[in-house]
Task: structure prediction
Amino acid sequence: MTRLWFSVAFAVLVAAAPAQSAELPDAIKQAGALRLTVNSTYAPMEYRDPTTNQLVGLDIDLANELAKRLGVKIIWSETPFAELIPSLQTKRADFIISGISDRSSRREVADFIDYLATGPQFFVLAENAVKSPADLCGKKVGTTRSTSFPVEIEKWSKQNCETNGKPAIQYVPGENSIDVRNQLKQGRIDGAVQGSETLPYAQGQEAGKYRIVGEPFATGYQGIMFRKDDAALREVVTEHLAAMIADGSYKAILDKYGLGANAVAQPMMNASTQ
Amino acid sequence: MRAAPTLAEGFPDLSGVTVARQAHWGRWLAAAAILVVLAAIGRAFVNGQIEWSYVSRFLTAKVILEGIINTMVMAVLAMALGIVLGVIVAIMRLSSNPVLASVAAGYTWLFRGTPLILQLLLWFNLALVFPTIGIPGLWSARAVDVMTPFLSALLGLGINQGAYTSEVMRAGMLSVDAGQYEAAQAIGMGRLRALRRIILPQAMRVVIPPLGNEFIGMVKATSLASVIQYPELLHSAENIYYANSRVIELLIVAGFWYLLVVSILTPLQMLLERRFARGAAQVAR
Amino acid sequence: MTRPLVAVRSVSKNFGEFCALDRVSLDVRAGEVLCLIGASGSGKTTLLRCINQLTSADSGGIWLDGELLGVREEGGRLHRLTERQIARQRLKTGMVFQRFNLFPHKTALENITEGPVQVQGRSKQDARAEAMELLGRVGLAAKADAYPSQLSGGQQQRVAIARALAMKPMLMLFDEPTSALDPELVGEVLAVMKELARSGMTMMVVTHELGFAREVADTVVYMDHGAIVESGPAAEVLGKPREVRTQSFLSAVI
Result:
């Protein structure tokens, strides 16, 4: 709780700070470009449009707007999810905005500026009889194995199934969210878990195919990841993000993807309790 | 007594002069240069950003050891399936029956012509095409229940291997002298019995080295089954670094075990080669 | 006149353009030793291989012990026999090859017992006992457990003869049995063949060993370009050949 207060206080300070702008690091200014890498299999955050094969998404739009305000362009690259943090560490990327959750286990190597509320959420095929999350106790539930969701499922299962005398959820790994939905369709798993930010898109793509079960069962944030020693870049990005929230352009982008409900009031640093 | 022949002048007797040892300066220089390069690489790794404590911590972790066992079990079973299929298909290919020969050729073309990872993904996701599989009237089941990661990996790896093995077996069978088949026929053997008793045992000698190589390749190919969630070595290493972000350290752990297994298998294959050369090493005088 | 053991009637065989056999006809009586001589490509080996059906004739018929080989007559047409039926017919002949063709992965004894046990279903003990006897007969009882690669060419060929005899054939075919041997090893093989002839086995031998033919053969047949040029008692064909072609062949060989 203390952490949350501290983070809120910090956020307020940042928002109320005078127009003393932080400066872009010299290297980026000289290059005139930000190098960013994303795992483009995560609609609607970042993905390749199936018809045009263009790189699109909420993170892409946010980053493009930030870059415009910083006066630089972006050199995009793509990488598997598990390579995002190494890309940051090896300086292949200047920062990471790629639907990555702010988690304490990740703060060993980076700092997060939280910009989107999220949390894992259960969903099933529309015709499934399951009504509430508790119905999934003892059933097979799948999710992408390279994310933090397997751990979340286990935690939730312990608290909500095993303590109530019900059998635990059987976790089934998948390679990525498309693989997971495939396994759901084939009946290899009874339910699946994805970040709540991705579900409206999935439902839009395959109308009437899926049904969300319950609310996000752990609240957290998606964060922009910065190297721990990169305070300058982190501050300048935070500043402009706060400006975007203030002038409504942030909300507009979120609404474009049907995620207005996931908005945060201020950018926060390392605010997630997970 | 034999008269010594008269020899021309000017050619001295060198039989008593010793041959000096060659200095091989070039070799020494090359060896030194290579050692310097290796030392530099070694030093770079030691000073690099690798947390060796993670490597030693996870080297014998339970999931890693289980992964190795799963890797080896799958390699052995898939190779066995591949050899059985390979022998059958090779015999079909060499048959005088055009239907059998065409089916064999088609199988080889299909499974050598597509990437292994693609075949694995197809087997694992079979239920997208056939939600239920079975023999009409006898038995049916949901495809997802049948196509577990284990079975999908076994079928994917084994059937793919069969296509390559069939070519090796075919070459081995063709390498056996035609006279052997005729001698078998002359004592009244039919084609299949001659193949089983006379041709195949001799083909083994030619076939063992490439099959040994194929098996070593299979051990490594099992790592592709990680994408269909078969819990082999790479899959286990990945799960660990998905949790703790120590990508290089865990890849070193996995790499170490693959290297160790292959290093043990290589001399074993040589022993096997020698056993099959029994009785056939020398050409008949 | 008793029925001949082997009756060849108008057998022809072509390999593409090349005519290997041109309407050859021949009789072989039981117990007869017949030697086929001639230049390479004259058809001698092809004829032999047609008799044990390693090669199938294009036209004509061959009868062994009264049975038509490779085909059956039905409704005025000839129908090929199945592979199984042909394999069964082969049991009546034994063949000895120029290159021995012993099974290299089996010992001498195993080479000999392979056919009787696997094909004729005889018990392993019986087959072993008979094999040892045959090895003794060809003078190689001590080499029962040797592998072919450990034997000299002459020894291998003698084992090959024992292997063919183990099937108890009624006709033995020899395809240039000594042509691949070093000269000093030829004698031991010929000795075995002589003993076999004396024991009454019907033999057809393709050979260049005219001394053997003169000594052991009842009949000598000279072939050229796929046809029989001259045939008759050994002494006549080898001593006083009637045909000019026979004469020139013999004078070139001697």
Q: What stands out?
A: The longest helix of chain C spans residues 183-198. The first strand of chain C starts at residue 6 and ends at 15.
